[in-house]
Design a protein that fits this description.
Layout: E1 4-5, H1 16-22, H2 38-57, E2 65-68, H3 71-85, E3 91-95, H4 100-110, E4 115-119, H5 129-135, E5 140-144, H6 158-165, E6 172-175, H7 187-190, E7 194-198, E8 209-213, H8 239-277, E9 281-283, E10 294-299, H9 304-313, E11 316-317, H10 333-337, H11 342-346, E12 348-352, H12 361-378, H13 381-391
């Protein structure tokens, strides 16, 4: 039987049409787009068209799109480039629930003498815009707030955040890697100055991303060398990757009117199945204002890593959280910031659905998940104590 893939937040399968669009640039049209001869100019034209396509998909101008090697690189450029362009400003504002691409960058900057304010979140993973207003200072260099959380799927109130930032000179950056291609994005409606995206999250290839940079935003170049990306990010372009990214994003935007409600229905159906059929479970994140395909569930009396191994042995791929933090034995910083106690945070799994997910996936998962949870709980001394206490009439 085909493996059950429920980790689309980590990466998505390459769209067949994106692969087909890439193939000429991996074979006959291999030329360097910086060349002056006709075949190189043809490749340059393809990059220009891809840039225009991506800009149109998010409501930007063509000259506001810069290609990068990943969403993480785009995040790093936004932060480091802004700080380099504003050396007299040493304060950064972010949140307690950022992706490692932002969180670890800010930690590193703290070691270099920068001051970082980490805005708290509520039990659903959402910041209070009033906390941002209170944290702003004259020396604030940048505000960076994730749009859609990669672990629990919660969407931040970006319109309210942007309204606050209108009266402050610091640029507003958002890591929208999980959101682009899955929910409608218009950079002007969001009110952001910078936005990071990554191709492999919406059916494109790995190793390519982009930074939206609103015209007039003060930011330094990130990689020095040649004149690529208008002299701001040197290095020969990943032509095939750029073409694949543009194709995949166009396909995602075209499919969104029917794909977003379809995946949302699957998400809600699976959430209800788990919560109704498996006791001592809890949904993490906002019930409604969340990504269409994101499900984060805590299983009490179960270690998430152990449950993940049981699923893997039965052909099901899921996650305990961010793919960029895999291997860590620490509980999720996102869930801890939301106020979950240690045991519930350690017992959390993320199931993320995508364009290849179907109704049939739900009973397949439940047939694996229910007995796996029951088996692990049967070996848990905490669960044994709980059931004995319940039998003796002790309140739990």
């Amino acid at each position: 039987m085909k493996p059950l893939y429920l980790d689309n937040a980590a990466t998505t399968p390459l769209h067949p049409q994106a692969l087909a669009a890439m193939m000429p640039y991996l074979t006959d049209d291999f030329h360097n787009p910086s060349g002056v001869y006709a075949t190189a100019r043809r490749v340059r034209k393809a990059i220009d068209e891809a840039r225009a396509s991506i800009a149109a998909a998010i409501g930007a101008r063509t000259d506001e799109i810069y290609f990068t090697g990943s969403g993480t690189e785009a995040d790093n450029w936004a932060i480091h480039g802004t700080l380099a362009a504003n050396p007299d400003k040493r304060h950064i504002i972010t949140t307690q629930v950022e992706h490692p691409g932002i969180r670890r960058t800010c930690r590193a900057l703290e070691n270099r003498g920068y001051e970082v304010t980490y805005l708290p979140v509520d039990t659903q993973g959402r910041i209070n815009p009033a906390d941002l207003q209170a944290a702003l200072r004259t020396d604030t260099a940048i505000v960076t707030i994730i749009y859609a959380n990669n672990e629990v799927g919660t969407l931040q109130p970006m319109a309210q955040i942007a309204a606050i930032m209108q009266d402050h000179p610091a640029p507003l950056h958002t890591d929208a890697v999980q959101a682009v291609g899955h929910v409608p994005i218009n950079v002007n409606n969001l009110g952001v100055d910078m936005l990071a995206l990554s191709a492999h999250k919406f059916g494109g290839p790995k190793g390519v991303g982009a930074l939206y940079l609103r015209k007039g935003t003060s930011i330094a170049s990130f990689i020095y060398g040649g004149a690529q990306e208008r002299g701001r990010r040197a290095g020969t372009e990943n032509v095939a990757g750029i073409i694949g990214m543009a194709t995949a994003l166009t396909l995602s935007i075209e499919a969104m009117p029917h794909e977003q409600p379809r995946v949302t229905h699957l998400r809600d159906t699976l959430i209800n199945e788990i919560l109704q059929k498996i006791p001592h479970t809890q949904l993490n994140g906002a019930p409604q204002d969340r990504l269409p395909g994101n499900i984060n569930i805590s299983f009490r009396f179960v270690e998430g890593e152990s449950l993940l191994l049981h699923l893997d042995m039965n052909g099901c791929a899921a996650s305990t959280g961010s793919a960029c933090s895999s291997g860590s034995l620490e509980p999720s910083h996102v869930l801890m910031a939301m106020g979950l106690e240690h045991g519930m945070a350690n017992g959390a799994l993320r199931f993320s659905l995508g364009r290849c997910s179907t109704e049939e996936d739900i009973p397949r998962l439940m047939a694996i998940l229910e007995p796996a949870v029951a088996r692990l709980r049967s070996m848990s001394p905490l669960y044994d104590d709980y059931t004995k206490g319940a039998t003796n009439g002790i309140q739990r």
